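Backbone description:
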Amino acid sequence: MKGAAFDDGYRLDKMVSGLHGIQQVLEGVYKGVTGKSRLSKSDREAYKLIAQDVEHGSLLVTLGALFSGVQQTFPFLPSLSPEDMWEYTKASAAFLYDIYKATHEGTSVSIHQDGENTSVITQGNENTVHIYNGPVFQIGTQIITGLRTLDDTLEEDNVEGIFLGSKFEKDPAIKMSFEEKGLYYPPISVDEEPRTINCDIFDFNKYDRIGKLRVSESQKIPEGNYKFRVVGRQEVEDYILSMTEREVEVYCMVEYENDPLRESRIGTLLIIDVVA
């Protein structure tokens, strides 16, 4: 990690956040190849991450992994040696960088798994196909949280770059810079036309003007609970009072998260007006 936060000692919030993100990434690789959603005590005995050295000038931490007895769930993977795990880490990081960068540039991508390889078709005037070795989609869904933690750690001047690589290799597996902050979050799109929706507002923060509501069936968006943010000029009292009603009518814009790892979904409702 490089930046002013490490020029004179180590800023603990940035140090802890960065190391936590790296741990999430490396443990995510383990979860991706074993098919587990969390690491048990026995898993942590089989797969330990250890900080072996810290150097001054920037936050340079040498990490080691103790690795033994790991059972994977993909029959096409020949082995799970430390070297294999590192190769899967590099391939998965490259896979995520490519699909999120393409999505932010407005390019559609489609992902296909074929045995031990994953192919990504970038759709444009001439469709381009990229092949990645290993279960990079399964690993990618597990390590994306760690990459977002690292992304949150980036800060102008204070944390300008974060790198994860092998000391035996020239290029890092993960290279994140402040200039690309936000890359690993899905791009947002908003409907051009507002919608009128009947709903139940059950949570509201008057300071941040955000909350949660439940949409019943037979509405213009699927039934379910949604986050909302007030973008209109109404007073917060109108929203507080609306929580006393079983159903209110809101006039809103729908904001979508276009995540290449899953189907696009509604992220937030942008409320312009509410009528109790």
Remarks:
- The longest helix spans residues 12-34.
